[in-house]
């Protein structure tokens, strides 16, 4: 591993357990039946343990949408051509994509990072220019990238988070993705780690038909058989069957955890990045929230491996960070549940004074 990655992993601290216990005690004292706000209570206590305070403020919300292209599209695994990836990057920058609209409602800023788009963006474009390579190779016939490139992609995500922290732009991070064909490497990643049959973890992505789905399963099976990714070595898995933006997403999770920042991942691809991150740095999981349960079949197995319960189940399957943006509103709300609901004792005092 690189020095930056090693240092970032080493700097991840455990959350403040005593603050989580204090939060749970405060929640029990609130003027309502104990446990009546369900998962909101669990979320609020976890956020308190991360922040080290009972009054968590998530005022600076940011979603980083990582983009990259994939050689596996040569196998006919996607409904859309690779040219859509750069076109969507421009759409994100202009504020016209789905994630931009949902993020604005949630009070979150969207920024884009080019990790491996097969297109040369002009240097003046206001994105994070972190290109590792011009798209991955077709992992059905060889490794997606080198081990060094995989490490570089993770390092790029850490660098992005460091830059956001230096600018004072983030209290909570959301991760999103853009990359035609990227459900294939994401499915390959969970198949590699879990050992589950490829057919059990592969979905229809952009909406492919049965024939294309069969091609997709076959391509991923060939890729896993040829590359033999080592499940005990997350960098090997990423390099052999992953993607540059998936590495960037992993780096964002590790970077956020190293700075004590909560991170909420989006759908299948963002969760694949989170899975790589948590395989490399198990303590990073303490900072991770999973936004929703995607329609994509492999997503539930990622959640099971991460031991994280998705907050929403809305039949989402877009990516971009859309689910993360929706979930941010729930996370923000949970902080007010903990900080602002009165206790039985406070209510009694208020009543006595009236």
Q: What's a concise summary of this model?
A:
The protein is of the alpha/beta class and 354 residues long. The chain is built from 15 helices and six strands. It has helices at 3-10, 17-29, 38-51, 84-94, 98-106, 147-166, 183-194, 198-201, 210-227, 234-241, 244-258, 268-280, 299-306, 322-340, 344-353, and strands spanning 61-68, 108-116, 128-129, 172-178, 263-265, 288-290.
Properties at a glance:
single chain, 354 residues, alpha/beta, 5,6-Dimethylbenzimidazole Phosphoribosyltransferase, Chain: A, domain 1, Rossmann fold
Distance between the termini: 64 Å
Give the strand content.
5-15%
In DSSP terms (H or I, runs of 4 or more residues), the helix count works out at 15
Give the full name of the CATH homologous superfamily of the largest domain. Nicotinate-nucleotide-dimethylbenzimidazole phosphoribosyltransferase (CobT), large domain
